[in-house]
Amino acid sequence: MIKKIPPEDLAKGVNDLIQKRVRGNKIKVMRACHRSAMVVRNTAIEKIQTGAKSGTTYEKYKPRRTHTASRAGEYPATDTGFLVNQITTKVKSEGSKIIGMIISSAEYSKHLEYGTTNMQARPFMQPSLDSNRTKINKIFKQEGVIKRK
C-alpha cells in the first residue's frame, strides 16, 4: 500500500535532506580551508625561523646579539620572533562563500612581502602558498570537497 504524503510535508522533507547535505559539504569545505591555511602558516613560520639568510650580518643591542639579515627575495630573517608570533589563520563563512585566511598582524608585514621604495621584497606569504599548492589540492580531495582523478 502506498502512503500519501501531503505536498507541504514532502517539500519540507526534501528541503531538510538538501540542507543536511549542504551543511555537511560546508563543514567539509571549512575543515579543508582550515587545514590548508594551517599548512601555509606553518610553512611561512618554518621558513622565517630556519630558512637561509645571506644578507648583512651586524651587531644589535638590547639585548646584545649578532643578526644576519635576509637578502632580497629570501624569507625574512627573524630577530625577536614578533613576525612569527603575529601569523594566524581564520576561516569564515560569508553567505555561500567560505574563506580561508592566513593573516600577519605585524605592521611591517606588507613592507616585507611587497618591498618599499627603500627595500626590496622579502616575501613570505605568497611563496608559502605557492610551495603548498599540491598539498592544498590533496587536502581538498581528502575532505571530499573535490573529486579524485
Tell me the domain tally.
Answer: 1
Spatial separation of the terminal alpha carbons:
44 Å
SSE class? alpha+beta
Question: Rounded to an integer, what's the Rg over CA atoms?
Answer: 23 Å
Mean pLDDT: 86
Structural shape: elongated
Q: What's the total helix number? A: 5
Please list the strands of the largest sheet in the order they lie side by side.
1-2
Give a brief outline of the structure.
The protein has helices at residues 7-50, 82-85, 109-114, 125-131, 133-142, and strands at residues 57-60, 65-68, 87-94, 97-104.
Description:
A hairpin with a 2-residue loop joins β3 (87-94) and β4. This protein has 149 residues and is of the alpha+beta class. A two-stranded antiparallel sheet has the order 1-2. Strands 3-4 form a two-stranded antiparallel ribbon. Helix content is 48%, strand content 16%. The protein has 5 helices and 4 strands, in the order αββαββααα. It has one domain (8-142).
